[in-house]
Amino acid sequence: MSTTAVDLAHDHDHSHDDHAHDHPTGWRRWLFATNHKDIGTLYLWFSFTMLLSGGVLALMIRTELFQPGLQFFRPEFFNQLTTMHGIIMVFGAIMPAFVGFANWMIPLQIGASDMAFARMNNFSFWLMPPAAILLLTSFLAPGGATAAGWTLYAPLSTQMGPGMDMAIFAIHIMGASSIMGSINIITTILNMRAPGMTLMKMPMFCWTWLITAYLLIAVMPVLAGAITMTLTDRHFGTSFFNAAGGGDPVMYQHIFWFFGHPEVYIMILPAFGIISQIIPTFARKQLFGYASMVYATASIAILSFIVWAHHMFTTGMPVTAQLFFMYATLLIAVPTGVKVFNWIATMWRGSMTFETPMLFAIGFIFVFTMGGFTGLILAVTPIDIQMQDTYYVVAHFHYVLVAGSLFGLFGGYYYWSPKWTGFMYNEARGKFHFWASLITFNITFFPMHFLGLAGMPRRIADYPAQFTDFNMIVSIGAFGFGLSQVFFLFFVVIPSIKGGKKAPMKPWDGAEGLEWTVPSPAPFHTFEVPPTVK
């Protein structure tokens, strides 16, 4: 009898040892990370680093455009800057940031102990830094980085130097990372929800990510196909996009945008999810029309596959195709409008307070809706033909991506960071960051509408003198916006990691969900015994 007791005690000790090994320390904790929270943290730091890198390129662009004439950079290098700014922001900053949020929050929100495939999760993160290094060092390649625009259109992309090959390789690696991350997210959400949590009881953030993950799996291979065909055109004598060899450069655009249009929803749907978590909390009401929000998200995802050629109205497609893509694009405004009305209905007669997450959520709705309206304007074929490749388009997609994706990410950071760090951020600094970002964002991007309407083309290093005043305003705003994010890093993020007011288990009194049932900071292991959802 006593030996059994000793054996049991020994077993108990052994399991305790396993637990100690389970929580590695120092560099091993990060290099071999399999815990969803650590991997989420790695993604968030990586994406913020890339945000700052892409931001520096943007400020170089704006420095050159402060006045007409060529001041600092020759046009070839200017084109490299615009191209790399776009690629780094899309694949290096926005997408990995949302994956960081998914890693941190999805297991906490559905009551899972971790992500489904912990080691694959580690691998999908560690693919990102080598891809980023490839991208950033492509500036040092002979002939510099690719300058074909972030869309990498043929025939420009088939004529670039080795920097183009480095970009293709980097995008392949990032695409593989995205596909693995998506498989992980889908498996986790479908198989690891706590008992009692049906799909229609899931938090909206989990829903938007589930749909986003399906989109990623559907379209990342399409992008891989497009850039692989570019690679074989460049080095293996094929003629996919070379008209002289029987190919078609416009075919590249069709393939690219079949990826590229769902991609813009990949970058905004998780932000919709974050906003749908924040607004009910600070309005102290249930989300209005939960089921319709789920169906609207799914509708947006499905419709995103049939609108790709609205990026191509000037390529000479038949008028029937122009009409089809115009109406399909206008149709996407319906489910998007449903979401905006539901958010407003959630706030209606709620007992609202305006902490920083709520400010970012309301700022998001206001500015994202403006970006949506300019999108509707560009969807109208005859208008788009006039606006094609002008600064109006630049204004439109920055309103959607910066004020959409980025404001959503900032709102999510302020909302969940007490759960991550265990400390409350400084509310006054958070509000300063919000107002500085909102004001400088609009100073930067609103005048671009006027520049575009007046006919200033995008991706040019020099411009006629009549565009000078607006360009000066835009450049000043851009530096203000960049400095606001540096302020965010040094005066909000780092201090709230180091210490401050201790965060309670539930820092927001209107918050609901399983993530608020674990201590702050969330312990290394959560939900080892799954909670039951009533």
From TrEMBL:
Q: Keywords on this record?
A: Cell membrane, Copper, Electron transport, Heme, Iron, Membrane, Metal-binding, Oxidoreductase, Respiratory chain, Translocase, Transmembrane, Transmembrane helix, Transport
Output the InterPro entries linked to this UniProt entry. Cyt_c_oxase-like_su1_dom, Cyt_c_oxase-like_su1_sf, Cyt_C_Oxase_1, Cyt_c_Oxase_su1_BS, Cyt_c_oxase_su1_dom, Cyt_c_oxidase_su1_bac
Q: Where is the composition biased (Basic and acidic residues)?
A: 8-23
User: Topology in the membrane?
Assistant: Multi-pass membrane protein
Cellular-component GO terms for this entry? plasma membrane; respiratory chain complex IV
UniProt xrefs under Pfam families:
COX1
Task: Give the function comment from the record.
Answer: Cytochrome c oxidase is the component of the respiratory chain that catalyzes the reduction of oxygen to water. Subunits 1-3 form the functional core of the enzyme complex. CO I is the catalytic subunit of the enzyme. Electrons originating in cytochrome c are transferred via the copper A center of subunit 2 and heme A of subunit 1 to the bimetallic center formed by heme A3 and copper B.
Protein name as catalogued: Cytochrome c oxidase subunit 1
Write the gene name.
Answer: ctaD
